[in-house]
Design a protein that fits this description.
heterodimer; A: 462 residues; mainly alpha; two-stranded antiparallel sheet; globular; B: 395 residues; alpha/beta; Alkaline Phosphatase, subunit A; 2 domains; 11 helices
Amino acid sequence: MPSVSTIAAIRFGTGLVPRKAGPAPAPLDAAALLAELNGPDTLPARFPMITRAEAEALAQQVRPARRAAEEGTRAGDPAPDIAYRALRQELRFVGNRGAQMAIARAVDAPIGFRERLQQFWGDHFATRARNAEMGPMAQVFAEEAIRPHLAGRFPDMLKAAALHPMMLTYLDQTVSVGPNSKAGRKGGGLNENLAREMLELHTLGVGGSYAQADVRQLALLLTGLSFTYRAGWQFDAAKAEPGAETVLGEAYGGAVPAEVSEIHAVLEDLALHPETGRHLARKLAAHFTSDDPDAGMVEAMAAAYAAGGGALVPVYAAMLEHPAAWASFGAKARQPLDFLVAALRALGVTGERVAGLAPGGVNNQLLAPLRLMGQPFAAPPGPDGWPEEAADWINPQGLAARIEWAMKGPRSWAKPLPDPRRLLRAALDDAAGERLTWAVSRAETASEGAGLILASPDFNRR
Amino acid sequence: MLNRRLFLQGSALIGCSAAAHPLMSTATFAAAPGENRLVVIILRGAMDGLDLVQPRGDAGFARYRPGLAALAVGEEGGALPLDDFWAAHPGLAKLMPLWSAGELGFVHATSTPYRDKRSHFDGQDLLEAGTGMDVPVGMAREGWLNRMLQAMPGVQSQTAFSVGAEEMLILSGAAPASNWAPASRLDLSAQARLLLDHVYHDDPLFRDAATEAVELSADMAPGEKMGGDANRQPLKLAEFAAARLREETRIASFSVGGWDTHRNQPGAMKAGLRRLSETVLALKDGLGPVWGKTTVLAMTEFGRTVRENGSNGTDHGTGGAMLVAGGAVRGGRVHGSWPGLAEADLYAGRDLMPTSDVRAWAGWAMRGLYGLDASLIEGSVFPGLEMGADPGLLL
């Protein structure tokens, strides 16, 4: 068994880093992880993402530019089409830059517990840009809806995430209209997608004690939430179903005109439902410790959630302070993003280096490998996010892409490559197994040595 | 199973006996479900069915498409005559011998149940999920090929393959299925392979995945590499799929993109269809003798507008077409019922009216190939589908 400090870095952080000269750093433990999370969040200022105003300004240009390009082509003028293509490329670059900054932060974080939580909660509220306009909004979502609440209250994160333009467009809320609303009498209808996912994925969980009637009532209550590229986010009372709705036995709404505060009220209640606490506790424990987490740990976390009124830090503390967090190791596989980040850390790469990559380098050295490993950045397969189990990731395709990257990728990041024995220590410390240690000492080249280390089960498990 | 030994070459080098090597054990595969092969190609971007196979006998066609249909059938660079009514896009020239041999056909005026919103993303999700509009788009997390596998006996992990790095919802779900992107090649030195073998020895998850990866990677011709040439990528996917289908695999799926022809449609269609033709031919060549037992269905998320737009292209529509190929299909004809292009016959006054559900064709294909019950197809593979009478797509 590796030490607590090694487990803390690999299981709960973004991976080990090479030891610097000077006195040995203090070993990591639960307190160190929580201290990082409770300390100031300095990484966003160093590795900034696009703001909402910038994202909306870009999105608003798309349709006019497309129209102009079409008209220009018709009239034989190629200039608007060239401008439109340039805009599309700019949107792609902006999206890629979001990935680049997220990776730079995870590479530079002292331990990386906050960055791991950012990934976890971003995945809990999984979204995906459905068109070019929404591409840049993905990072705005991460920055506005998720990050400020990582050490805050879940009900606040729920309100910010589930009602964000990114979620409203992804789960079709923007086309949902109350059938008896002013707008609904002219056409359009109800769309239950967001309401269903709020209950099934975001709060109570798929086994929760809600019925189809609750989904429908919640969907009626959510009408009025709207977002367009031109007008931005707004609550449009003309689309809101009149009257009160009953969700899980509680009545909400009924104000004339309808108000968004009614939606906030139901989200607060759903967030604080005991089943939500258990759902979140189990999901966190399954993500960080084991696909089949310790029942006592989950119980302790759910109790902390209830006692703290939805505050998240006590839940993390209950997980980290439970013996099961440290009693076993290696049951889970690092997901591709974690794998890539941990490898860059082990190689001594800095966040500045990642942030300094040109757009082509971002694609070739970060995004393309992630795609081949099965985890294209910010593009989860559905609203239920990425799969959790090791076998979902360590399949022939995914593992081959990891091995390929492990054998060839490090050369473009570390020149010269570190001595494999030193890299082994940096990457795994006391988590390196005998078979790996034996094999690394027999590698023919530094590159092959790095490849063996990074492709090993030792490095890919956590 | 020679490839499996790649991990073992020169094992004396590090002093391991072959017997101690789990990678040495030859995997055995239970008999796959029958000998018939099904390949589903997803044409991403909404291919223009009216340009693929052109209703030249309908007076509306030339009227709506003065630019796109400017060249006469049979003229230099013009469409290729199929019969008195239909003509094929010239980009399909390489496939014409298959048409003559009865191994290439089309289904016209078909679509998924997706209507009105015309979004690629949602349309593709619905096409691959095989559901109706009653399931909220984006909520379906399972593909219809996977649900078909769930209903078949003797399915192994190799029975079905999705090929390429592109996510294929169509094969996602509870039934086992494999995925491989031919872009992934394990270029390992003999020594690296041996050492990796040693490192993976005690970890079955890594060991088994690596063993299979080595074998799959070896199926690529030596020295061959997926380059940046997008035109060659579908070809590579087809070659790889064919190699698997020659062995224990029975079902394969991959996608070919580039059909969103809002502008300069003639150029884009010509290149796209040449690529698709070569892809089908690569399947035929690679499949060799089992081509006769093969059904290829190439389908897209929706069709395009009947009228050409102002930028020499077409916009998102509804009814489209499907291309079918293989020795098992009844080719040499255009299947489906033609709705006509008169103003009143169009969907929403702008699109080709669908006269069939693309799922019904796929349903009848899987019934013919794998003997699945119609009730099972209508109940679980394509929930809510009414298959109707056998349209005779297969021989």
